[in-house]
């Protein structure tokens, strides 16, 4: 479960002695339950990416508390966050963020290397997950030799390789055509249903928001709950 309490964030911009505060999030409290798919929607600039960056520890909140699976992650050091992310959170990005100089195989393998998994086990797990996302035979392809949809699948395989219980996705379908988007959404539902993975998805796209059990809207830095759309499959 992800619990956010009294979360506020502002950026400081401008030159020294002429700094200005840009408030982005104001006193946000919410809970995301295990096994849920939650869509975070809201206008451009409403603070969606900032919220996700705070939940994933890439930024520190100005105020407030974040708890994940009972651990107070907002008090974590950088090193603790890095370790926690590796164990518990997978990420999917709009622009895929694959390393261009590495093959599909190596992109997916990287997190396991960092974790210190043995080479034999890595090979087994990487081949398994690439096959699972429909990329058997594409292991040695570089990102620029793959279509957008295939790159996104490498991105999903990379997110799944550490078997996280939470996946955070920032505009994951923003670079996909509508057919590939539908395949991606179907896969998310399947992962959620079969493995109970919790998804937090930022999106502009109402079709994407429809796969969510719950939609929350960020408006001027505060949340508006939009109610249940689907039942949570546990
Ligand atoms: N590093 C930063 N320094 C200063 N201001 C920032 C910084 N990052 C974001 N902001 C500001 O915070 C606000 C929220 O940005 P954020 O990227 O979280 O919005 P968003 O809802 O994800 O937008 P979009 O849908 O366009 O991606 C914006 O007004 C933006 O200008």
From TrEMBL:
Keywords of this entry: ATP-binding, Nucleotide-binding, Transport
Pfam families named in the record: ABC_tran
InterPro entries noted in UniProt: AAA+_ATPase (IPR003593), ABC_transporter-like_ATP-bd (IPR003439), ABC_transporter-like_CS (IPR017871), ABC_transpr_LolD-like (IPR015854), MacB-like_ATP-bd (IPR017911), P-loop_NTPase (IPR027417)
PROSITE patterns linked: ABC_TRANSPORTER_1, ABC_TRANSPORTER_2
Ranges for domain ABC transporter: 2-234
Stretches that traverse the bilayer: none
CDD domains (UniProt xref): ABC_MJ0796_LolCDE_FtsE
An example molecular function term from Gene Ontology annotations: ATP binding
Name of the featured protein: ABC transporter ATP-binding protein YtrE
UniProt organism field: Sutcliffiella rhizosphaerae
């Amino acid at each position: 479960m992800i619990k956010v309490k009294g979360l506020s964030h502002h950026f400081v911009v401008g030159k020294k002695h002429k700094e200005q505060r840009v408030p982005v999030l104001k006193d946000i409290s919410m809970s995301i339950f295990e096994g849920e798919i939650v869509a975070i929607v809201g206008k451009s600039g409403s603070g969606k990416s900032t919220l996700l960056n705070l939940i994933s520890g890439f930024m520190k909140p100005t105020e407030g508390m974040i708890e994940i699976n009972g651990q107070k992650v907002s008090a974590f050091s950088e090193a603790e966050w890095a370790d926690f992310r590796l164990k518990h959170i997978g990420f999917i990005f709009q622009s895929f963020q694959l390393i261009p100089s590495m093959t599909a195989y190596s992109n997916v393998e990287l997190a396991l290397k960092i974790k210190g998994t043995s080479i034999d086990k890595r090979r087994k797990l990487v081949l398994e997950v690439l096959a699972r996302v429909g990329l058997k035979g594409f292991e040695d392809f570089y990102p620029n030799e793959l279509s957008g949809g295939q790159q996104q699948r490498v991105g999903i395989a990379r997110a799944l390789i550490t078997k996280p219980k939470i996946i955070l996705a920032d505009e994951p379908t923003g670079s996909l055509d509508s057919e590939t988007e539908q395949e991606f959404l179907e896969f998310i539902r399947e992962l959620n249903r079969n493995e109970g993975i919790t998804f937090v998805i930022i999106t502009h796209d109402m079709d994407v928001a429809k796969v969510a059990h719950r939609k929350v809207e960020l408006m001027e830095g505060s949340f508006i709950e939009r109610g249940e759309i689907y039942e949570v499959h546990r």
